[in-house]
Design a protein that fits this description.
- The protein is α+β, with helices and mostly antiparallel strands.
- The chain has seven helices and six strands, in the order βααβααβββαααβ.
- It has one domain (3-213).
């Protein structure tokens, strides 16, 4: 078992699993209620999508992997001069004191999100959304913005030696990142998770489809 990171889920379920599509639509209904309460536009998840190219070969990984990237982000935010290193043997990145400190501020969309379920939406908002009245309306309890997630990924890309041209990642750079699958290169976990999230984030914004953690 691990974390699956998908986009265009409703468009797929409409074709392959009508019951699952109904559940997802109900989930978006609850999320839209919370969006309205925060004076934000509703999310209209597309039921049909054109073909798109997702360059990352990974769409799932162990639940623990995302905490490795969160640790890098939290430490870079606290110390821009910090040079990323992998976690030590026996160290739990989820319990890194910088992760815990930054998460308590509820300002980071990368940090403040379930590591097992929930959504990032292609809507531009600053604060992570929380259902103040009924946690059952939001899978995972928190909703993030694809735009803010992209900003945070861009912020730490240089620290991971990932080269961007504005918001663009070249095909050559994408190929290099895919080649890390199965490798033991330094920071390979952090880079692969970054790449997986970057790809779904850019496509989420382009096609106005939610990023779904499950």
């Amino acid at each position: 078992m691990g974390l699956s990171v998908e986009i265009g889920m409703l468009a797929d379920l409409v074709i392959n699993d009508s019951e699952g599509a109904g559940w997802l639509l109900d989930s978006f209904k609850g999320v839209n209620e919370v969006l309205a309460e925060n004076a934000l536009p509703e999310h209209k998840e597309p039921k049909v999508l054109p073909e798109f190219c997702r360059r990352s070969e990974l769409n799932s990984f162990p639940y623990s992997f995302i905490h490795h990237l969160r640790r890098v982000y939290a430490r870079v935010v606290n110390d821009p001069d910090w040079i990323p290193v992998e976690v030590s043997d026996g160290e739990d990145p989820a319990r890194d004191p910088f992760v815990e400190e930054e998460s308590m501020m509820f300002s980071s969309h990368l940090l403040c999100h379930s590591d097992a379920e929930g959504f990032y939406l292609p809507i531009d908002f600053d604060e992570v959304l929380i259902d103040e009245t009924d946690q059952e309306r939001i899978p995972g309890g928190l909703v993030g913005s694809s735009y803010r997630l992209l900003d945070e990924l861009k912020e730490i890309a240089p620290k991971l030696d990932i080269k961007l041209d504005g918001n663009q990642l070249s095909d050559d750079e994408a190929k290099k990142l895919n080649e890390l699958i199965g490798s033991e290169e330094n920071l390979h976990i952090e880079k692969l998770v970054w790449f997986t999230l970057f790809e779904v984030t850019r496509l989420s914004i382009e096609f106005k489809t939610a990023i779904c953690f499950s």
